[in-house]
Task: structure prediction
Amino acid sequence: MDFKIISNGYVAAKTYLLKDDYNFNLTTTSPEVELNRFNKAIKSASKDLEKSENTYFIIQKMLLTDPILSSEVNDLIKNKKLTAEAALKATIKKYKENLLNSNSKYLQERIYDLEDICQRLINKLINKENNYPTSPFILVCEELLPSILLEHQEYIKGIIAKKAGFMSHGAIMARSLEIPFITTNKEIPNDTTIIIDTRCNILELNPTANDIKRIEDLKQQQINFKVVEHKGMLLLANVFGNEQIQKVKNYGFDGIGLYRTEFIFMHNDRPLSYAEQLNIYTKAVKTLGEKTFCFRTFDIGDDKQIAYIKTHSKGFLNYVNNEDMFEDQIKALINANIYGKMKIMFPMIETKEEFNYLKSWVLTIKKELNNDKPLKIGMMLETKEALEHIYDFTESDFFSIGTNDLSMQLYHLNRDEVKTIPYKYIIDLKNKLKDVVTFCARTNKELSMCGELAALPEATKLFLDIGLKNFSVSPAAFKDLNDTIANYYKKF
Ligand code: PEP
Ligand code: MG
Result:
């Protein structure tokens, strides 16, 4: 079956087809009435969002109440005599076109956030009641609006959309909530039992009772499994928000090997203050307790753009160009470390000069804060340059191999291709990493791997062969990693 995977998983449930079947007049003879309707819709929609503490909804409220949006819609109603619905759609269309014309993939993905606002207001204007099921269902839609996922996350067990961006908010959320999400052009009927199984590439309509049972068994196994004996190894988790930490504990991970802090910044429309970050990091380390916790300083640029900062490529310069933001983050991390066992690492390091500069910057801040809690400072090993000069990085306390960026750089792949990297490249990477393993063993430096390849069974086996012992994977991949390790050691 032809589909594109946005978030992996399997599910068997009934579909719920979301229709955008609203009609409205384009023009009006009473602009005053339309202005009134629009202002009421804004008030009512932002009131709905007031209760939520979720960052996504907070941003949605900011966008909704942005005076520029209101004034542009008001102008169209007054001057062109458009109805509130038509004026809103025209304004959002203009914003969307501007975003589409930007070169940034990240900004282009923000189109879904605008769609979300538009849909929210239109629903208010036409008083549309939604009748979402209150039992588990698979959402079938044109495009996934993040707010729908957040509001109905209790019952949405799978998502099928006509289109979706891999880095869109909805996609990121679905992966974080471990909800299978695919895109396909196939027409999917309403209220029909279907199976999505991304591992076996199955999208099946009206499955047999046996097929449904197979999926239910798989789901059960995903939750109930025994963590394999793994003395001398660390099975760690990759997370990008505090919401995932409890799950990490429940699954039985040994700690967190990669906290992608840039997602906290990307979900906001301004830099987070020191106090806000302290609050987030403190909650995170308190939730995880005594387990090891590795925070990566914000890794922005390229595919991870932040609306309020000009960045081009990822790497060192982003810290030098945004000193205040870096210092606020480091201060917040160091002060949160009072409650935990923290490591800090820098992404995209290319030279030892870059690493040493950032390390001494962090140590200076630590000294100014009179903080004497032990803190390991290390780096991601994810650039070609760093890999070629690994012996230079004597000051780094540890390394975490980022196979995503590394394989993009070594084999000229794009991010989507990394997920289906040819086996010959995995073998080549394994050979290139042998020296790193030897260097770390000789110098007593911790070494782990946190890119997508850490969770790909055929790759994990090769990395185990060269003596890699610590793997950091997304919570959804924990069972696969666990099984791979169990099978690997059965051989001996
Ligand atoms: C990597 O490059 O492998 C990595 C883990 O970093 P990210 O995917 O966040 O760029
Ligand atoms: Mg990376």
Summary: Residues 347, 382, 402, 404-405 surround magnesium ion (ligand 2) (CB under 6 Å).
